[in-house]
Amino acid sequence: MGIGFWSRRFGFAFVVAGVLLFLVRLAKGDAPAQAAVYALAWGAAAAAVYAGVIWLRWRRNPACFRRRQERG
After folding, report:
1. CB 25 within 8 A of CB 35
2. pLDDT band, very low/low/confident/very high, at 69 (cuts 50, 70, 90)
3. For the chain, percent helix, then strand, then coil, each to nearest 5?
4. How far is CA 69 from the centre of its chain?
5. Neighbouring residues of 42: CB distance < 8 A, sequence distance ≥ 6
6. Cα 22 from chain centroid?
7. Residue 63 contacts residue 18 (beta carbons within 8 Å)
8. Are the C-beta atoms of residues 72 and 47 closer than 8 Å to each other?
9. Which of 15, 25, 56, 66 has its CA 20 to 30 A from that of 46?
């Protein structure tokens, strides 16, 4: 599991969290610029926590993340 795998995980979590937070802040009536700053900051924090938890789980038991044909 190289850097590309972890980058994709972080990027996907960041985009999903960022878009959802942005839309929620817009629905609450915030200005788009303010909503974007909020979404970028909290989206990055949420993605870091998500990727960190996945990495810790992988580090404890990497066999769970392998494909069936790689397990042997």
Report:
1. yes
2. low
3. 90, 0, 10
4. 27
5. 17, 21
6. 15
7. no
8. no
9. 66
